[in-house]
Amino acid sequence: MILAATGPEIAFWGFAVVAGIAGFFVVGSRNVVHAALYLVGVLGSVGAIYIVLGAEFVGWVQILIYVGAIVVLLLFGIMLTKAPIGGVALDNNQRPVAFIVAATTFGGLTWIIWRTFGGTRIRLSPTRTAQIGNSLFTHFVLPFEAVSVLLLAALVGAIVLARRD
Amino acid sequence: MSYYWQYGTLGALTAVGGAFVVIAFLGNRLMRPRKPRVEKATTYECGMDPVGEGWSNTHIRYYLFAFLFVIFDVESVFLFPWAVQLEKLRPQGTVLVEMIVFIGILAIGLLYAWKKKVLEWVK
After folding, report:
1. C-alpha neighbours within 13 Å on the C-beta side of residue B37
2. Do both B26 and B68 map to the same domain?
3. ipTM over 0.85
4. Nearest CA distance, A73 vs chain B (angstrom)
5. pLDDT digits (tens, 9 = 90+) for A98-149
6. Is B48 helix (H, G, I), strand (E, B) or coil?
7. Chain B (3-62) residues lying within 8 Å, Cβ to Cβ, of chain A
8. Is residue A153 part of a domain?
9. What is the CATH number of the domain that holds A111?
10. Which of B71, B85, B116 lies nearest to residue A151, judging by beta carbons?
């Protein structure tokens, strides 16, 4: 299988490895700002994986929204705190419990994905943005409008929390 | 296969760009004289001596502006598939109204922020 690897397969594995390593540093780095910057690596690699799998629009949305906007929001959120960064170990004595929870989640997800999609061959064919627009504005109009209400609620909530007047 | 060829070109261009930066900085490092001093290592802040730590506690209004940016970023993302399909879907329905409703609901949020004086940069 490795010998017959095609270009997209090699790209997928490359980005998957980068995402995994960066994800390890997100949880492993002592400096929260560094963790946020490693998160850029994770989200960017996941976006690239979407593009490799043919979901071009979703991939670029991932890069535009998550890398471009959510990480900025996260950095401002970090800078709101008074916590000193770097040097101090952001750790507590719950490592075994955390390990059990993480291992169970990982194992459960792997099992479910394996049970559902194991052995399925994916035919890589790019989805066009026009197809997404077509289904979004004919079949999924209500969820689309619900998104705007959700965003409005989030914005009003943030303003209410931030301002006391 | 043209889809992957296009991204292959993009990837090759990114690799060449990255290699250019690495080679330029590496060449610079190999050829320049190296005489480190304490003054040289300080952070450059318009010629002034830097004050305090790199860490500073920012005001929450930065967060609210970032939040507004996220929301209208998401809105602009939905504009792309809409704009691509607008001409095609227009004869058979309400595609224009759908987007006006969407933007209208988000505009209420912007009006709320304006009313709550989030947009003003008070000192």
Report:
1. 4
2. no
3. no
4. 5
5. 999 999 999 999 999 999 988 888 777 888 888 888 888 888 989 999 999 9
6. strand
7. 3-4, 7-8, 11, 55-58, 60-62
8. no
9. 1.20.120.1200
10. B71
B55 in a structural domain: no
* Residue A148 falls inside a structural domain: no
Domain annotation covers residue A18: yes
Query: How would you write the pLDDT of chain B (123 residues) with one tens digit per residue?
Result: 588 888 889 989 999 999 999 999 999 999 999 888 888 888 877 877 777 766 777 778 888 888 899 999 999 999 999 988 888 887 777 888 889 999 999 999 999 999 988 888 776
Number of domains forming the structure of chain A? 1
Chain B CA closest to residue A140: B98
Whether residues B81 and A11 touch (CB distance < 8 A) is answered with: no
Q: Which residue has the tokens 């709101």?
A: A80
Ranges assigned E (strand) in chain A:
none
d(CA B117, CA B122): 9
pLDDT in tens, A14-31: 999 999 999 999 988 878
Residue ranges of alpha helices (H) inside B1-123 are 2-31, 38-41, 60-89, 95-115
Check residue B1 and give its pLDDT. 58
> How far apart are the CA of B31 and the nearest CA of chain A, in angstroms?
31
Residue B48 covered by a domain: no
